[in-house]
């Protein structure tokens, strides 16, 4: 149910972005609001608090965001609170950003390494993936020391495991298979 709610609101904002030809502007505004709401837990707690009136929550949103976001986005934010769906706000914004990525043909690749990667390494990975997938790539990096070394790359539902841990797991499986024969 929550996913359906998020898709409907996000789709409405996406349609407005296409109609008004303001996709890039709305995308940057939504990213900014998403970052604020994600990093400021107290702000989200206020929006979700049952004893604070909806009018006060809508006024808070207007006070904070009305001078820096478009009327269309402000209208969405106040509508979500007016309908009592503020607990879905982050998911709505994320869904909108995903729709924009799909529309622009951008694919996100999650690169997991044992140590933080340097910018040159990230750029080389990005170039390699772009040439193989033939789409624009956005890289997200994660550090996971448990993979010991190498990389794990996830693009959509595909995973390339070139980590030492993955190779050790493969060797372990092979050894078990040899013992069963």
Automatic annotation (TrEMBL):
UniProt keyword terms in alphabetical order: ATP synthesis, Cell membrane, CF(1), Hydrogen ion transport, Ion transport, Membrane, Transport
Membrane topology term: Peripheral membrane protein
InterPro entries: ATP_synth_OSCP/delta_N_sf, ATPase_OSCP/d_CS, ATPase_OSCP/dsu
Statement: the UniProt record of this protein carries the keyword Membrane: yes
Compartments, as annotated in UniProt: Cell membrane; Membrane
Endpoints of the signal sequence: none
Function text: F(1)F(0) ATP synthase produces ATP from ADP in the presence of a proton or sodium gradient. F-type ATPases consist of two structural domains, F(1) containing the extramembraneous catalytic core and F(0) containing the membrane proton channel, linked together by a central stalk and a peripheral stalk. During catalysis, ATP synthesis in the catalytic domain of F(1) is coupled via a rotary mechanism of the central stalk subunits to proton translocation. This protein is part of the stalk that links CF(0) to CF(1). It either transmits conformational changes from CF(0) to CF(1) or is implicated in proton conduction.
NCBIfam families according to UniProt: ATP_synt_delta, PRK05758.2-2, PRK05758.2-4
Stated family: Belongs to the ATPase delta chain family.
Protein name listed in UniProt: ATP synthase subunit delta
Species assigned in the record: Defluviitalea saccharophila
């Amino acid at each position: 149910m929550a996913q359906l709610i998020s898709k409907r609101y996000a789709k409405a904002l996406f349609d407005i972005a296409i109609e008004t030809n303001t996709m890039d502007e709305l995308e940057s505004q939504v990213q900014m609001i998403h970052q604020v709401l994600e990093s400021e837990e107290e702000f989200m707690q206020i929006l979700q608090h049952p004893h604070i009136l909806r009018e006060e929550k809508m006024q808070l949103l207007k006070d904070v965001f009305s001078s820096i976001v478009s009327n269309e986005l402000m209208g969405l934010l106040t509508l979500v609170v007016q309908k009592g769906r503020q607990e879905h706000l982050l998911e709505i914004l994320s869904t909108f950003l995903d729709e924009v990525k799909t529309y622009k043909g951008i694919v996100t690749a999650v690169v997991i390494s044992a140590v933080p990667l340097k910018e040159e390494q990230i750029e080389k990975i990005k170039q390699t993936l772009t040439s193989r997938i033939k789409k624009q790539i956005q890289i997200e990096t994660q550090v996971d020391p448990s993979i010991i070394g190498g990389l794990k790359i996830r693009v959509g539902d595909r995973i390339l495991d070139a980590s030492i841990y993955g190779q050790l797991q493969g060797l372990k499986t092979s050894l078990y298979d040899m013992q069963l024969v």
